[in-house]
Amino acid sequence: MNDRFKEKERYDARASLELAAKDNTKLPLINSYLIEPYEFYNKSLKEIPSNSKVLEIGAGMGENTEYLLKLGHSVCATDISSKSVEVMKKKYSNYDLFSAQVADMESLPFESNSFDCVCSAGSLSYGDNKIVMDEIHRVLNKKGFFITVDSLNHNIIFRLNRYIHYLNGSRSKSTLKRMPNIKLIKNYEKKFGYIHVKYFGSLTWFFPALKLFMNDSQIKSFSQMIDKKFKIKKSAFKFVMKAIKN
Hints:
The protein is an alpha/beta fold. The protein has ten helices and seven strands.
């Protein structure tokens, strides 16, 4: 079976549990020292002009969708998992400007130049990097934004951890190969003409040791200081990128 359809089945199964639950299943909270890239991602989303038409790709069960809706945008959230889309429709049914549909990010079912912004939170490895980039660029209006938060794939410790997840059956092999790297980020710069990238967590691999003598707040402050002072890229855990279509 194609790896992408294995991922679809895995997310369908997860969403089915959510749909069967009598109340909303609470996803595990992100540790405070790991949340900074997502906070910066949300801050970047605030730069989207008011009343924009926004497409979210690889939206999952809408874990990052509500923030866009609260900003007042017209949001179309998409995912390849039909069960996940069903969860989103149920979860955000009270938002008039919300729609959700099944869509493959390698073949987006939308006309060219039809969105002011495309956003993605941790989903770039679920499709062929070049095809997905081309599709994002195609559906964006001129001067439209692409904003993403995702993992980086240079640090050998993070790569080993992801490989262990693959061996445990919680990640497909193809996602390991497609995990974003510096080369992909440079390709987005060539394609779009302008990007701004911020890297986070160059010491994340060392956090388990730091927890022996530092609390979460101290680890977060220390990590932020290292990221700011040394601006290390390749050992970073996460990045946030904003690309503007020229």
